[in-house]
């Protein structure tokens, strides 16, 4: 383990809004009590000049930041970077984001999973060609192709008719809307630690409603769908989150583990819906890097446990012993990456997506 009295330093580089929501006093205090210091990285100064952080936690992009991380890795080859920019960028495209789901093989569960039917529309010409999207069943959700966390990338609409597609602006993704009882499950992942919470979502769309609604509604307008349906007590009973059954934790944890391996990312969440047509069928509709963890109850403990895992595994000899003994204890580094680091001092030890526990949050 780490030397007696030695503290583990996590430098964080976050935009102001993200910093305010994530770096709360409650998280800082709990981490300090576990020997972990969270230190703000000054984005106006070169990263390499700010100390030998044991771990760099970041959500910044761009060529300059990439160069800074590369320079830091050369000087600090044993540092852990959370996470690789190349791996993160896969989630900035809503098509490549979900392609990874089809690569997963999750066995020994009664439940199944997948993604909704979707296509990418890159220009108006394809948008006007009905053959390009004739396989999609309406309604569909129109989402910007780019998912970079900007306000523009969150502008989505529920489209009810073919003719309304002329109101959307490519490049976009058209994703088939599936009735899911008005509840979405958000699965937060921090290394081996997984926690699933439920949130209210878009209301179901009946065949009658589909016939009566014209055009499209932005997500900010979707609530209007139910403004004149207050007497529909059955719908509002479905919207009671306390009555909504959670998906099996072992099932979502296995999906989380598969996504970590496939994406080589450690900090993300994914949104899951239960298909109303088949209660054992779940659809993954979105994956987000380094989401709003503070919205998750008890996030301080989960993130501190995650940092503690890194701290324990950072000792190379311990990592080596972990593989030699084939232990079933907490997460470790990918053996190939450890070997690479031992063979080439220029390579940074990158935390990968390996876990042998059930990861229950």
Automatic annotation (TrEMBL):
Give the residues the record marks as binding Mg(2+) 2. Answer: 286, 288
Residues the record lists as binding ATP: 94, 143, 175-186, 201
Which PROSITE patterns does the UniProt entry name for this protein?
Answer: ATP_GRASP
**Entry keyword Nucleotide-binding:** yes
Among InterPro entries, the record links this protein to:
ATP-grasp, Inositol_tetrakis-P_1-kinase, InsP(3)kin_ATP-grasp, ITPK1_N
Q: Which domain of life is it from?
A: Eukaryota
- Whether Cell cycle counts among this entry's keywords is no
What are the protein's UniProt keywords? Answer: ATP-binding, Kinase, Magnesium, Metal-binding, Nucleotide-binding, Transferase
ATP-grasp domain residues? 105-315
Q: Which residues bind 1D-myo-inositol 1,3,4-trisphosphate?
A: 18, 59, 154, 186, 288, 292
Query: How, per the record, is the cofactor bound?
Result: Binds 2 magnesium ions per subunit.
GO terms assigned for molecular function: ATP binding; inositol-1,3,4-trisphosphate 5-kinase activity; inositol-1,3,4-trisphosphate 6-kinase activity; inositol-3,4,5,6-tetrakisphosphate 1-kinase activity; magnesium ion binding
Described by its record, this protein's role is as follows:
Kinase that can phosphorylate various inositol polyphosphate such as Ins(3,4,5,6)P4 or Ins(1,3,4)P3.
Name of this protein: Inositol-tetrakisphosphate 1-kinase
Origin organism is: Cucurbita maxima
Tell me the organism's taxonomic lineage: Eukaryota, Viridiplantae, Streptophyta, Embryophyta, Tracheophyta
């Amino acid at each position: 383990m780490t030397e007696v009295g030695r503290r583990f330093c996590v430098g964080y580089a976050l935009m102001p809004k993200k910093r305010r929501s994530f770096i709360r006093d409650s998280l800082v205090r709990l981490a300090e009590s576990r020997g972990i210091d969270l230190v703000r990285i000054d984005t106006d100064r070169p990263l390499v000049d700010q100390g030998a952080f044991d771990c760099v936690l970041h959500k910044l992009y761009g060529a300059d930041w990439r160069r800074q991380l590369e320079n830091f890795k050369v000087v600090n080859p044993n540092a852990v970077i959370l996470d690789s920019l190349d791996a993160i960028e896969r989630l900035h495209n809503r098509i490549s984001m979900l392609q990874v789901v089809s690569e997963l093989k999750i066995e020994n569960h009664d439940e199944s999973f997948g993604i909704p039917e979707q296509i990418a529309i890159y220009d108006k010409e394809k948008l006007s060609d009905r053959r390009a999207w004739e396989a999609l069943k309406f309604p569909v959700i129109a989402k910007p192709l780019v998912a970079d966390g900007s306000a523009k990338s969150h502008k989505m609409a529920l489209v009810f008719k073919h003719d309304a597609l002329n109101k959307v602006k490519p490049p976009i993704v058209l994703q088939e809307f599936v009735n899911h009882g008005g509840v979405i499950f958000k699965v937060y992942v921090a290394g081996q630690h997984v926690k699933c919470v439920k949130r209210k979502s878009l209301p179901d769309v009946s065949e009658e409603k589909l016939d009566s609604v014209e055009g499209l509604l932005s997500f900010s307008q979707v609530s209007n769908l139910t403004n004149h349906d207050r007497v529909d007590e059955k719908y509002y009973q479905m919207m009671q989150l306390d009555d909504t059954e959670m998906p099996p934790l072992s099932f979502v944890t296995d999906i989380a583990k598969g996504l970590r391996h496939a994406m080589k990312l450690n900090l993300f969440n994914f949104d899951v819906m239960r298909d109303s047509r088949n209660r054992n069928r779940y659809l993954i509709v979105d994956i987000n890097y380094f989401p709003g963890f503070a919205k998750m109850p008890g996030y301080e403990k989960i993130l501190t446990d995650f940092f503690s895992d890194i701290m324990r595994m950072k000792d190379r000899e311990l990592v080596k012993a972990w593989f030699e003994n084939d232990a079933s204890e907490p997460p470790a580094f990918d053996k190939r990456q450890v070997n690479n680091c031992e063979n080439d001092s220029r390579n940074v030890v990158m935390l990968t997506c390996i876990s042998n526990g059930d990861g229950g949050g």
